[in-house]
């Protein structure tokens, strides 16, 4: 991390968290944030549900909610990006304050509630973007006031699907009341049937992922895996934020919302390994939750992930973390004799079961 980045992060951490988030987006839009360019090393090149990636380190949804900084993020070293979540209609989200730093825990709690500009506006920005070697996907959400939340996901996909490389069905946010109820097998199967119908109507069908919560029982996971394997899904993202607060030290630990960051690492990695075992490698998995180091990214891959995503760690480590993790991952693969990411996937799954 450079002295300039260290100073900028220190300044942002003195600012209200949501304001700091907005300022970081402005820095990207105006070219103030230094960008390293793509990280493309032969050992890191891989394929995710048919999508060629320069490297397996992706941006998780929630940072670029409205698809306003895709171009600079494509030059930040990521192998792929996920923007959103987008809902059919614009919505302001939950009342502020709704984002909290947990500095002592290197974590954050948010209860944004899918604040976004809506599918029409986001779709227009996605349509106008210049396509690069970095795939861009969209996280699909549902409006809080919708009479049919299950149908909202298909509506967003129909609007924005022609302009993205993949999409993610997000039924795992804890910040929209009863949204996680859609993870039940019957409700999930019906929801995904509608999404797949919308996918089939796109000019070019794209991969569809499902993002799940970490707060699921083994029975829940088994049911989700069964639905995923029979619904035509392209893969699963494990996991979203958690409601668990065990072991936290920060003053904001009791805030309502979803917890992300370092405390989520072990919990999300165990869920990932269980899903890997349940699906027997037939579905690509994306590991998310608590990644701060190349070693942690590598642990997710060895637990069963074909690729990883991160977000909260950038609050504490800055954008320079992205190439650092990607290049460190390359070093770890070489150390263990892996010529490709694929040969490392699931190689240490049993340690997490």
Please give the alpha-carbon distance between the first and last residues: 35 Å
CATH class: Alpha Beta
Assigned CATH architecture: Alpha-Beta Barrel
Largest sheet: 8 strands, parallel, barrel
User: What pattern of helices and strands is seen along the backbone?
Assistant: HHEEEHEEEHEHEHEHEEHEHEHH
Shape: globular
Question: Can you give me a brief rundown of this structure?
Answer:
With 353 residues, this protein is an alpha/beta fold. It has helices at residues 3-12, 17-29, 70-73, 119-128, 149-160, 185-200, 218-231, 265-279, 294-303, 312-317, 321-335; strands spanning 46-48, 51-53, 57-59, 80-86, 99-102, 107-110, 136-140, 166-170, 208-212, 235-238, 258-261, 285-288, 307-310.
What does this structure look like?
The chain is built from eleven helices and 13 strands. The chain has helices spanning 3-12, 17-29, 70-73, 119-128, 149-160, 185-200, 218-231, 265-279, 294-303, 312-317, 321-335; strands spanning 46-48, 51-53, 57-59, 80-86, 99-102, 107-110, 136-140, 166-170, 208-212, 235-238, 258-261, 285-288, 307-310. It has a single domain, classed as TIM Barrel (Alpha-Beta Barrel), CATH 3.20.20.70. Helix 3 links the parallel strand 3 and strand 4. The longest helix is centred in the middle third of the chain and has 16 residues, at 185-200. The model has no long low-confidence stretch (mean pLDDT 96). The chain has an eight-stranded parallel beta barrel with strand order 3-4-7-8-9-10-12-13, surrounded by five helices. It has 353 residues and is of the alpha/beta class.
């Amino acid at each position: 991390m450079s002295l300039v980045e260290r100073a900028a992060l220190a300044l942002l951490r003195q600012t209200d968290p949501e304001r700091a988030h907005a300022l970081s987006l402005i820095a990207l839009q105006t070219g103030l944030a230094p960008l390293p360019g793509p990280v493309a090393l032969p050992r890191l090149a891989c394929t995710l549900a048919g999508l060629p990636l320069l490297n397996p380190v992706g941006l998780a949804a929630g940072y670029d909610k409205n698809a306003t900084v895709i171009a600079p993020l494509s030059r930040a070293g990521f192998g792929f990006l996920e923007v959103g979540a987008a809902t059919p209609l614009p919505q302001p989200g939950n009342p502020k304050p709704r984002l909290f730093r947990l500095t002592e825990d290197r974590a954050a709690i948010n209860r944004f509630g899918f604040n976004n500009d809506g599918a029409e506006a986001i779709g227009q920005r996605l349509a106008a973007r210049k396509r690069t070697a970095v795939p861009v996907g969209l996280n699909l959400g549902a409006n809080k006031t919708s009479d049919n939340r299950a149908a909202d996901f298909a509506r967003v996909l129909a609007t924005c699907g022609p302009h993205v490389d993949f999409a993610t069905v997000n039924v795992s946010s804890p910040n929209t009341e009863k949204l996680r109820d859609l993870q039940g097998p019957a409700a999930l199967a019906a929801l995904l049937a509608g999404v797949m119908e919308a996918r089939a109507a796109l000019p070019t069908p794209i991969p569809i992922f499902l993002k799940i919560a970490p707060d699921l029982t083994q029975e829940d996971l088994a049911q989700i895996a069964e639905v995923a394997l029979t619904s035509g899904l392209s893969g699963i993202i494990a996991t979203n934020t958690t409601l668990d607060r065990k072991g936290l030290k920060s003053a904001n630990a009791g805030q309502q919302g979803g917890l992300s960051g370092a405390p989520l690492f072990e919990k999300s990695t165990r869920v990932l390994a269980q899903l890997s075992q349940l699906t027997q490698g037939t579905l690509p998995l994306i590991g998310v939750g608590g990644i701060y180091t190349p070693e942690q990214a590598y642990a997710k891959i060895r637990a069963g992930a074909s690729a990883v995503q991160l977000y909260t760690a950038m609050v504490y480590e800055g954008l320079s973390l992205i190439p650092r993790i990607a290049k460190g991952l390359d070093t770890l693969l070489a150390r263990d004799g892996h010529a490709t990411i694929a040969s490392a996937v699931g190689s240490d799954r049993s340690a997490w079961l």
